Model the fold of this input.
Amino acid sequence: MLSLFPQLFDFGFAFTFLLRAITALFFIYEGILLLKKREHWFQVWEKLTHWPRLILGIFSLLGGIMLFVGFLTQAVAILLSVTAIGFSFLDISSPNKKTKYFILLAVLAISFLFSGPGLWSFDYPL
Done:
């Protein structure tokens, strides 16, 4: 069967960039939300219950930044998909977020493992 708009296939790399940037912004937002919840950072060292929040927040923030600029996209895709699944299992995010949201973020992140970084990235495929 023929495609309805075959000219749009030329924009595949640009769409991958757009999807990568939007997904990265979601991860950066979630990382900032998790790290902002800590009023006093010295309490993290006293209580071991806050370690998953700190680790997932840092991974989400740094991974989102790396995904946004397209640096080590495939490795970051694995890291962010595990982070999104950790968000859903540990239930440490915002109370209005659902598990389906984080599963969708995990699927979006893992899609970059197979599709590549797209345009305007440091690890552009040759």
Remarks:
- The mean pLDDT is 79.
